[in-house]
Structure formats: C-alpha cells, structure tokens
Fold:
Amino acid sequence: MGSIPTIIISCSIIFLVINIAVITSEKAELKQNQTSFINPRINCYPEIESPYSNYSKESCLARNCLYDDEADSSVIQCYLSPNYGYILQNSTEQTNNTFKLQLKRNQAIDNMFPEPMENVILEIQYYTNDIIRFKLYDADKKRYEVPIPLTPSPGKIDSPQYEFNYSSDSTRDNILSFFIKRRDGESVLFDTSLGGLVLNNQFLQIITRLQSSHIYGFGENNHDTLKHNVNEKPSWGIFARDQGTNWDINANHYGHHPFYIVMEQTLNDMPSGRMHGVLLLNSNSMDYSFDSTPSLTIRTIGGILDFFIFLGPNPEQVIQQYTWLIGRSFFPPYWSLGFQLSRWDYSNLTHMQMTNKRNRDAGVPVDVQYADIDYMDAEKVFTIDSINYQGIKEYFQELNSEGIKTIIILDPGMIDDQEYYEPTIDGIKEDVFIKWDNGSLVRGTVWPGPVFFPDFFTKKAQVWWERWITNFRAVNLTFDGLWIDMNEPALFETNDPVPWNWLETGNNYTLKCPENKWEDPPYRTKAIYRWDRKINRTSRLSDRTLCMSAHQGEINSKTGEAIYRHYDVHSLYGWSQTKPTLDIIQKITNKRSLVLPRSTFVGSGQWAGHWLGDNEATWHEMKRSIIGMIEFNWFGIPYNGADICGFDKTPTEEMCIRWMQVGAFYPFSRNVSFYHHIN
Structure:
C-alpha cells in the first residue's frame, strides 16, 4: 500500500485524419458566434497601477503601442495595435492526431518587448474525445516546457466532441485567429478573435473570449468570492510565494494552479447545464485578468503556451478529465481523516502535553498531534531542542501506543554550518544544493540564519534527503507523516539590507540577487508589481525567495550545465520535494502515509494534500477558507483545509466554536488555536 498508482494508458496509435474546419474566407462561421461590436482595446501597460511602473506617453510608445491623449480614466490609454499578431504561412503539417500551423509575426507592427518569436508553431492535438490540446511555441528555438508527467493520449480518437477552426482577417493584415467549439452546438470554448497574441522570449500573452461570465478557479489566490466578477475587471498574479491568505487583498500565495472552469450559457443567456475547464500548463510567473466582454487575458514570462481544454460536460466530468491527465488524487491514510492538533510555538514539551491532554479530557477526539518548528534546536532541521523538548521521542511513542498518530515539520533550508552540522556537510560533499553559474552555492536566510537549499530535481538530493529522514526517524524521533513547509521556497528579506530575525540568529546576512534578464524581466507580472506600493520600492521576482538566475536540475551532458533555471521552475520547488518525501515516509513506515506541503503545483494532489497556509483568526478568513477548499478540490487536491480558528491572532470564543463546526467538514481538519479555549 506504500506505492501510489499511476494512470498509464497505452494502445496502438492509429492514424487519424483530423477533420478541421478551415475557414479561409472572411470569418464565416466564426462571426455567427460573436457579437457585432468592435473589439475592445488591449492594455499595453497593465502594471500602470504600480507607483514604480514609470508609465508615461513616452514609455507607452517605447513599447510600440498606441497612445490616446484624450482618453479618460474609463478608457485604456496605452493599447496594442489591433494588427499585432501572427499571419498564417502556406504550409501545414498533419501527423496522427496532431495538426500544425506555421505562423509568422506581422512585421508591419514593431514588437512590444525584446526578443520576439518571429516564427511560431500552432500545434493542435486531439488528445481524447473530450480533451483537446493546443500549443504555441517558437519554431526556431527550443524553449523550456513544464517537466511534469501527464497521462498520454490513448491515440485513437474516434468521436471528438469539439472542432478546431481558424481564419485570417483581411481587415487586420490577415492576422490569424482560431476558436474551439463543441461539435454538437454553438458553444465556443476558446476564441482568440479579440487579438492580442504576443509571443516574446519573456512576455507571452493570449486573450480569449469567454463563453459566459460564469468563470471560476485559478490559484493560489485569496479570492473573496468563488465566482469571478468579470464586470469589475480584476487581475491576479500566480507565482509561488510565502504570502499568507491574510496578506492584504488581491494576493498570490504558495501554489501555482492556472486552471479554470466556465459554466456555459445558451444563446439567450440561460444556463445550459454544461461546463468546460481550461489548463495553461506553464510554471513561470504569470497573471490573469478579466474584462466585461467577457474575456480573459493571460500573461506569462517564460516557457510556451500549452493549453488543454476539458469538455465535461458537467463539473464532475471536467474534474475527472483534469485529474485523469495530471494524476488522480492520492488515497490518504484513514487516521488523517480525523481531528488534528497543532500550534506554532508550543514553547516546550510540557505545554504540548498539557494542550493535548486538556483537549482529550474534554472529549475532543484527537487523532493526530503535530510538532512545529519550535521542537528543533535553534530551528535547524533534523535536530531536537534538548532543553525545551527533552523527552519528545518518548512522548510520541506514548501517543502512538494510545492510537494517536504524529506528524513533524521539516523545512528545506539547511544552515550554513560547515563545521558541525552534518546534513550540510554531507550535502556539500554530495553536491545536493542549488548553485550559481560559477558553481558556488546559493546562500539565503531563513529561520536558523544563512542556509542552502537542496535541489530536489536531482537524484542525489533525493537520496541525501531519504537518508537524513530515515536516520532521524530511526534515532531521534518517530513520526507517522511529514509536514513540509517553506518550500516555495521561502527566504527572509532577499534583496533587503537585513533579515527580520537577525537579532535572534546573530547574523544580518541576506541574499542579494544580481541584475540580469532573469532577475528583472521586462514585464514582472501582477504577482510581483502588486507589492510595489506595499514595500515602497520596485519589487523583484526574487523578493522573499531564491534568485531566478540560479541553476537547477541534472547536468546536461552536452552543455555541462544544469538543465533548468530557477526562473522557470521556481513554482515547482514544492512539487519537486513532495513525491520524494512521500516515497520516503511510506518506505520507512511500510504504510500509507501523509505528506502536507505548503507549495503545490499542477499534479501535486497525486502525492499529497495541502493546508491553506498562514491565516488569521477573523470571520473573513473563515469564509475565505471555504472558497479555498473548493478551489483546491478543482485543482485535484481534495485533501485540504484551513488552520481552524486561525494561525495568527487570538479568536473569540464564538468564532472559534463556529470555525470548529465548519472545520469538521474540511477533508483536512486541523486546529492551531483550540488550546486557548478548552478549560
């Protein structure tokens, strides 16, 4: 029971001629699915809300965009030329279930950002009868693609429920657009006729009309409503960062899930009873914004545009199709469905024991006891505070004998103590830490002070991680599951003068990232510039985390360099740590177990659950937790829940009672403040 089943579909690939309705005349069928109004302006300067955006007429024109001197606040002033885009070339290529179009950028319009992709492939793949995939990528240069496993197409597509159509607009320099619709009706699921397709090395933008304004999903964000209000024209960032749900509003958080679902309507705006889902498989920093058209704009700063559309038709089938592709959710151990007790900073073992006993004496059915970072010696991983937590090993064994399981927290950062701290000494010797171009180790600051971070994309880091977890459990402390925190990865005050905890650690070192195109790309996305005003400077991608120019992954034998940049795989750090950690704990316990990561990505649910991160004791956060719980169910991580009664601040008794009632219905039900209220 320790292994996780993987869905693999293999069968003979049968040549299939794809019947693609090619529209070469003036929009024809496409016009039947569009309203007749003029396409709205496409924003050329979305970061204008930042006081550090340097927005002006000159900066707008420098992007080769159009500027309206007479525009009022209700109108986009700096906008993209409607003729910006790509033109279909003469040749097409068709193999099996795949159809490729060769495109060339309209060179009559200057590029918006440096390094435009001049020649592009639009690749359409009939993936299953209910899933269609399309990709846009550079025809001249291989680019980074997200390295996660997906269930392959079964090959034989005998009854596709969709149609792919494309056309060229003679009124706009023959700019190409395409749309995907249901075969049995008029529902258009993806439609790029609004224009705005921009493909540069570090800026990729695509815009689609929405079939209806009833759109849900995307994350990880602190959404205040389950349904997005497209009429308010909101925008959100996606990029893994150590930012709690109580961090202001309109924020991005720990995970990266560019997946949304749409509730479809009939032509007279009535619910049709159908839904479809869309995944953009891209791990770079990105943002998404809505317009009342209704339309959706997605911008990312790396990789390729790799979309999957899931045709449902109902919500359950959409999610089934999605998790079939990315991996079915893991089967949690029975004990993890019970009530769990935790607290940041119990301070000592006596306090932990008293809290646990007080709850159980009051009739609370405690099934799992956690140990947070304060059980460690000076917050160093794989250590125990021998003064405040002396006897925790025996206490955990006692809890096990009484039927209570135990989970401990582990952070990825290893303290830079190369004289006495064995995990770091071994890690350097075995070459497991993330490096700079010149081979030196990237050094940041977290809880214990200066630290190094393992590169879980490498086999040697996974082997090192397994040995230390195995030995720690065998010698120091037994546990039944693992809670892996700070794996966005999180650092303290990167690019700032000193870390907030320097008096505690006695070290004022912080990581300072260099200036280059990875650290400071031409467009920073809403996930980054959203914080300019709050920190009173120009935010950088590396703030609160590692430098984007660091290398990761195995060594390419041809180039002699690691195969990834942190710039591309940053949001995959937690994902890369999760499966190895689950494999380890299930191997050493020989049972189903639980891994609880803070940072997740597409597909993380096949190995782990998720808690919704650092919240606070407010009614508003309780409401948000319900939204987050539902969204993560859509993301394929149904085993999730919020910190009941709040991680930060002290709840009122009434609110904590109500939150306990709500939390009883969380799949992952854990209280972090309950001990305050049991007398």
Notes: The longest helix spans residues 459-475. The chain is about 20% helix and 25% strand. Confidence is low (pLDDT under 50) at residues 1-37, 674-679.
